[in-house]
# Entry
Amino acid sequence: MRDLLRQADAQKRAVGAFNVSTIEMMCGVVHAAEELQTPVILQVAQIRLATTPLPLLGRAMYEAASRAGVPVALHLDHGTTFACIQQALDLGFTSVMFDGSALEMEENIAKTRQVVQMAGRYGAAVEAEIGSLGRTESGEEVAAAYTNPEDAIAFAHETGVDALAVAIGNAHGVYAGTPTFHFEVLDAVRAGCDTPLVLHGGTGSSEANFRRCIESGVRKINIATAIFQATARAVHGVQGEDWFAMSRAVTDAVTDVVKEHINIFGRA
Ligand code: 13P
# Structure
């Protein structure tokens, strides 16, 4: 992931990070990346492992990434336990997120540093989060708190993370209308550190918001809900009980969603 973010920075674009939880979805992501010859990040959030265990899904993701005709980074999204992060590293994930955003700053720093050490043994990169998005990856509503730029800069320097997720008015899931993002937060963070920034809650953010985020240093953009919605629509759109038609429809629908986003985020 480190290399992909560096390349994206040089090309003033962002790498799409697409959440998956089935083989059809991962095939859709890889097809899109190959068609557009643009590297992507294939990721799964820890919360999703309740339905698809990491040893199964992670191995399939590893194979999908290894066989792809473009570089594909393998990422654990919203890792909250060291055990899960360790398992992802053992499976060959090239980066992990430690989400300590609900913790006090000092504890978030201390735990993130531990994860940086763990990942360092594998040469893997680490993403962390500071500030709180209004809605979690599983849809739970929590108090939103925009990232404080001074805290973010101190956090980046003290932890040495490779990517930093910030809260600027973004939230996971479906927005009611186009969200208002606080780009001044991104600019203020960037003035004090050169850590690539990450936008969570990509679905429905608007093309203009994506472009403006990229101008202000966002180099990784997460898309999950759009993929899951396209998947559900594709399944419902197939008449009858032909599972294999559904499977093909899901892969095609995910390919379309991913291509649409890569075309906005920028092609390599
Ligand atoms: P969306 O589900 O809003 O696209 O957010 C994805 C995300 O940030 C995953 O961490």
The beta strands are 15-19, 40-45, 72-79, 95-98, 125-130, 163-166, 197-199, 218-223.
